[in-house]
Amino acid sequence: MESSPGMPERLSAKALSDRESAQSIEHASTSEEFPGSLRRLFPITEQYVYLNHASVAPLSRPAREAMVRALDGSMYHGPRISEEMDAVQAATRSRAAKLVNAEAHQFAFLRNTSDALSAVANGISWCPGDNLVTTSVEFPANVYPWQRIAEAQGIELRVQNQMDGYIDVDELLRLVDGRTRVVTISWVQFSTGQRLDLRRIGNFCRERDILFVVDAVQGLGALQLDVRADAVDAFAAGAQKFLLGPKGISLLYLSDRALERIKPTVIGWTAVKGYSDYLSHDLDFRDGAIRFEGGTLNVPGICGLGEALDLFLRVGLEKIENHLLALSDYFAQELTRRGYRVTSPRAPNERSAILICRHPQFTGEQICAHLDSQNIIVSARLEGLRIAPHFYNTREEADALVAALPG
Predict the structure, then answer these.
(1) Which positions ≥6 away from 125 have C-beta within 8 Å?
(2) Which residues contact 359 (CB under 8 A, 6 or more apart)?
(3) Which of 45, 82, 158, 311 lies most in the core, judged by the most C-beta atoms within 10 Å?
(4) Where in the chain is the domain with CATH 3.90.1150.10?
């Protein structure tokens, strides 16, 4: 019988339908030329200088093809591809675990970063008099879940105030006392690009038996993360930014100690051990983070995320981080030369893939609009210009942006 699009044999978790894509990844991961052939995996480079990964990233060819295969499989074969999709989900959990030195059972697929952080905040058994510590410059996804808990349960929300957007970790940790249950921060701040010292904060919390919760969406995929060495108890990361995945899918990581302390509050039908016995109604949760998944999942999203994670593993996060930090330094040098003030921290342990700059004459919105007219895509944040490249971006593209700047 002639194969039709979406036949099950084409839905293997390891398959890449485009042989050229696989060869591009292999060449880039072994060659000294970087990013080199990886650019072929991102068709957006054919029309744009795209430097807005802190907002929404473009899909790679492998991620898009994985999603199409899942949709074609559903269209042509309906539920007969369920076994293949289960294998894809298992492979994606394993890839996520390998990326951050975790275990596959510690990951759940949720809708987005807000959803994942809400699952953590809502699942803790709070007591009156407890407090949690955070910063004043968190993105709303890492504010509202905790704010609601504080108001609903009488929990004290302790906020470390920033100075011109800068977070002083010493001041943050001074807010901790014997009633602190959680410290929650963004690994990389969306409005400044400041990278916080996860290992220092994590070890501080672990020594005091405090849960350390991280919004990792602006760092994961651009920087190296080791959840064990960094003592991270939970992190949330939507796929649509530096992870180079689709919208509508996110990773929730929970350490084993977090799994013991955080309980599901939104219960999906697959959260229990006997989920295939539809009339048992026994609320006996499955082992691991999978109990936090709200039933039927976004399978095409998981397929796209799985291929994105595979790309990071093939290329190597150390290589990606080194490239991005060097590119960030180059941007800072050239922007300063053009008379722009770089406001992102530049200390070696604080810089990230996000760079913020300002001009005395033009607002961030004005600069963005000017660059957009030339197909150079960035974003404006808090009156500044935010530049957020990824591993397929080059110095030549940095030069193009700098040359196109007004002023």
Answers:
(1) 261, 263
(2) 339, 340, 341, 367, 385, 405, 406, 407
(3) 311
(4) 317-404
